[in-house]
Design a protein that fits this description.
The protein has 2 domains: 184 residues, no CATH class; 164 residues, Beta Polymerase, domain 2. The chain is an alpha+beta fold. It contains 14 helices and 11 strands. The strands form 3 sheets. Strands 1, 2, 3, 4, 5, 6 and 7 form a 7-stranded mixed sheet that branches. α8 packs antiparallel against α9.
């Protein structure tokens, strides 16, 4: 590929990621929403106060991979956890915990004069904000679960490094939901976030320092949501490609974000530019899909290796097929775009796969953006884009890759 074409493709992908980013205001709005709920849970009159409640974000808002919705009227989904740190599973049932947390969320809703009713989901409570806010918050009740998870993982010879932040969560479809029992669903969003950050820590801190220097501020004053790494940007681009490809997903086979995010993070090798990161990710994803003795796919949760994000693939093989169909399409689409020599050709090539309006906005932005750097200027010299080459042969290691 010619050097000029390489430069155009790189700048275009940087602009595409920038167009997908949500505003700092949206991040701050989400942050304030769960901070406000946490303050309510900790107020003197709260029925949860004595149980040391902690509310924190999980999901794409925590990971920094939220993208603008396909349609302006769509809502953002803020995922949060309410962990009662002073309680344990021997003291109450899942049902009791969920009822306790739900009662306080309902009182919060009334105190804020929210007109939309509180909704109960399988694992969470959904708090719907006013239409103008354009988001809702799913709150998962939880208890600490570090000891039990560490014992469980150690007994099976698995990595328990991140078990300290493990939690037990509620599920009203699980057997024994109404009983006091040790058998609760497990989760560890803090552990997963720490693992995810570890996959991009060097570039994250480099960009944060650059932002701090430019603003003449301390590094600590720069929040995570103001910094975007090539790993995060690549995931955002791939999620939009996925959304467009499965916009009419009548069979419910759309690849889930946690699988895309986990495989992308495993495959990322510290590249400083999105084009190079995207190439590494699309080339390397399959290497991190393991198989058990029966050939079933395993994509282990890095914060809890016993959890398999691909566990539904054996039950619904069409979902596994859909993932590989999507991956092959993404490999072709971005390899082709990277080989093109002008901005219009790249726009025309990607429009059917990321959306016509988005592709055009990225083209307009890239035409007027000489640097191609995201929010934080890194000062890194632009390297040449490797020649795209995505093999069609699946690579299957003998075991999940675990922590990196």
């Amino acid at each position: 590929m010619a050097t000029n074409a390489t430069s155009i493709a790189k700048t275009y992908l940087e602009s595409l990621a920038e167009e997908l980013e949500i505003s700092d205001t949206r991040y701050e709005q989400a942050q304030e929403s769960y901070a406000s709920l946490g303050r309510w849970f900790g107020r003197p009159a709260s029925t949860l106060r004595d149980y040391d409640p902690a509310v924190y974000v999980q999901g794409s808002f925590g990971l920094g991979t939220v993208i603008k919705p396909l349609h302006a009227e769509e809502e953002y989904d803020v995922d949060a956890v309410c962990e009662l740190k002073a309680l344990n599973k021997s003291q109450l049932s899942q049902e009791t915990l969920k009822t306790m947390v739900g009662a306080e969320i309902e009182s919060y809703r009334r105190s804020q004069a929210m007109t939309k009713p509180l909704r109960e989901g399988r694992r969470c409570w959904t708090l719907n904000y006013a239409d103008g806010a354009q988001f809702h918050m799913d709150v998962v009740p939880a208890l600490p679960n570090a000891r039990d998870v560490r014992i469980l993982l150690d007994s099976k010879g698995l990595d328990s490094t991140r078990a300290a932040t493990a939690i037990a969560i509620t599920d009203n479809e699980r057997f024994g939901y109404a009983d006091i029992s040790d058998d609760w669903p497990r989760s560890n969003p803090k552990g997963y976030l720490e693992w995810f950050k570890s996959r991009m820590r060097v570039i994250l801190e480099k960009r944060r320092r650059a932002m701090a220097d430019a603003a003449k501020a301390s590094v600590e004053a720069i929040p995570d949501y103001k910094v975007r790494t090539p790993l995060q940007s690549s995931i955002m681009i791939l999620k939009r490609h996925r959304d467009i490809m499965f916009v009419k997903d009548e069979l419910n086979t759309c690849p889930i974000s946690i699988i895309i995010t986990t495989l992308a993070a495993h495959s990322y090798r510290g590249e400083e530019e999105i084009a190079d990161a995207l190439l590494s990710i699309l080339t390397g994803m399959e290497a991190h899909i393991a198989r058990d003795a029966r050939g079933r796919a395993i994509i282990a949760n890095p914060s809890d290796p016993l959890e398999n994000f691909a566990d539904k693939w054996s039950e619904f093989p069409e979902r596994e097929q859909a993932f590989y169909t999507w991956l092959r399409q993404a490999q072709r689409d971005f390899a082709h775009a990277a080989s093109l020599a002008d901005r219009k050709a790249i726009t025309d090539s990607l429009s059917p796969h990321v959306g016509t309006d988005l592709a055009k906005r990225a083209a307009d932005r890239s035409a007027g953006t000489p640097s191609g750097l995201l929010r934080a200027a890194t000062g890194a010299a632009a390297g040449s884009l490797s020649s795209p080459s995505f093999g069609n042969t699946a690579r299957t290691p003998t075991k999940p890759q675990g922590f990196a």
